[in-house]
Amino acid sequence: MLNKKIITSRSGSSRRVASTCFLLFAFYLFGCAPKLLPPPVYKNADLSLEEVITIAQGDINTLKAIADINMEEDNTPYLSVSASILLKKPSWIHIRLYRYGMLTGSFLIKDDVVHSVSGRWNSKLGEFGMELYQSVFWWEGLENALMHKQGTEYVIRTKNKEIRLDKSTLLPKSQKITANSNKISILYDKPKKGAVSAFQNKPGADFWYPSVIRIETGAYRLTVKIRRLFINPPLEENDFKAVEAE
After folding, report:
1. DSSP string covering the chain
2. Rounded distance between C-alpha atoms, residue 39 and residue 36, angstroms
3. Predicted structure pTM score
């Protein structure tokens, strides 16, 4: 099975890495069910930063998550909704909010600009949009980054960001971001196993992703609990219509 392939040296060619990048991406981004741990595919590997990025980004262009979102202010519940979250490179986000199965609000984010599409939505949630994008597409913007090993982790650093990955699985464990003097902390938890029926005309495979993402900044904490995740789903005509019309 593809999920048993291990790159054993830094000299492994990028083609070999790219040939399994989809499934490997699944290992790091996605998590596992209770009492089930992600396989230690990279336990004996010694990967370079370039290989880690190649594995991470794979052929992923769009992700869609069905999730529950909870927000707290000073440890007090502030907002609780269900959501359909669509993330597309480069930095496009469409979040639809639901309560009792009914659409209550929808907004788009592009280049840090929020565009209201319909209904009512929470402005504070909109401010978390790009942090949510960065928590998922964490491998972007690492052109000038440095990486080193520290115990069981890979530590990736840029001028304003630190990312920690599990060395054996390449699952992200945490991020620390400094933006405009604001400090943002991102934690990943509860890896979960998913599956796709097919990918690029090839038989389906299992994948892994962290089903819980916690983002904290200042007095606010955003918790996203992912119930289902879709990789490169077909897009509908109106998914990013407002953005494309600009």
Report:
1. -GGG----STTS-HHHHHHTHHHHHHHHH----TT-PPP-TTTT----HHHHHHHHHTT--EEEEEEEEEEEETTEEEEEEEEEEEEETTTEEEEEEEETTEEEEEEEEETTEEEEEEE---HHHHHTHHHHHHHHSTTTT-TT-EEEEETTEEEEE-SSEEEEEETTT--EEEEEEEETTEEEEEEEEEEEEEEEEEETTEEEEEEEEEEEEEEEETTEEEEEEEEEEEESPPPPTTTTHHHHT-
2. 9
3. 0.78
Question: Which residue do the tokens 């401010």 mark?
Answer: 127
- Residue 184, token pair as written in the block: 């943002």
pLDDT tens digit string along 5-61? 333 334 444 444 333 333 444 434 444 334 577 788 888 889 999 999 998 887 888
147, two tokens: 């990486």
**Longest alpha-carbon distance in the chain:** 53
Q: How far is 222 from 216, CA to CA, in rounded Å? A: 6
pLDDT for position 213? 97
Cα(55)–Cα(139) distance, integer angstroms: 10
* Burial tier of 217 (Cβ tally within 10 Å: 0-12, 13-18, 19+): middle
